[in-house]
Amino acid sequence: MTADDHLSGPRELLLGATVRSVGRAADMGVIECADRDGGVIGVHVQCPFRILQGGHLLLGSRDMRFARRGAGTAAFERFETVYDARALTLNGILERLRPPVTDVVLGDAGSLVVRCRADLRVEAFPDCSGSVEAWRVFLRGGPHTGFPDDVVRGETTPPRDPLRPGAEADTGPEGTP
């Protein structure tokens, strides 16, 4: 599979879709879009990611680690983190702007950039050398694509170690390094 083949799935699903909301499921970033036919497109991000407008960072995955002022020690479980507050604000903006996706770029080592009108963009950058899902894009009820593609598709071929050509990567339980 070439990089262009891998890119065709996320690109085909996301181009022209309208970004509707940002949230989370536990520590996984969730971005919801609507396609032209009203179908729901999900973008699930389990690696570090950020949402920017121009050169300004609006929301980052690490914001989930910080409680809102006065939220207490259970802020993460109660969805009272800095991430949750900023996502709520961003969702109000997205509702007004309804920005369509204008470009999708798959880069080195599975990095993903989704560009939208209003100079908004989502950047995901996998940070694990093991065979662990970093992100996926899917039409609800349809096929899933993501990085690494074989993991997202449920294939079980052993990952290759780029530091030792011809060798399988050392992985721990459930494919973690």
What does the model show?
The protein has helices at about 5-15, 80-95, 150, and strands at about 20-25, 30-35, 40-45, 50-55, 55-60, 100-105, 110-115, 120-125, 135-140, 145. With about 180 residues, the chain is an alpha+beta fold. A 5-stranded antiparallel β-sheet has the order 1-2-3-9-10. The chain is globular. It starts with a helix and ends in a 25-residue tail after the last helix.
Which segments are poorly predicted (pLDDT under 50) over 5 or more consecutive residues?
1-6
**Structural class, from secondary structure content?**
alpha+beta
User: What's the β-strand tally?
Assistant: 10
Q: What Rg do the Cα atoms give?
A: 17 Å
Order of helices and strands: HEEEEEHEEEEEH
Mean pLDDT, all residues: 88
Strands of the biggest beta sheet: in what spatial order? 1-2-3-9-10
So how many helices? Answer: 3
N-C termini distance: 24 Å
- Percent of residues in beta strands: 25-35%
Q: Number of folding domains?
A: 1
The largest sheet is: 5 strands, antiparallel
Can you give the helix content as a percent range?
10-25%
What's the overall geometry?
globular
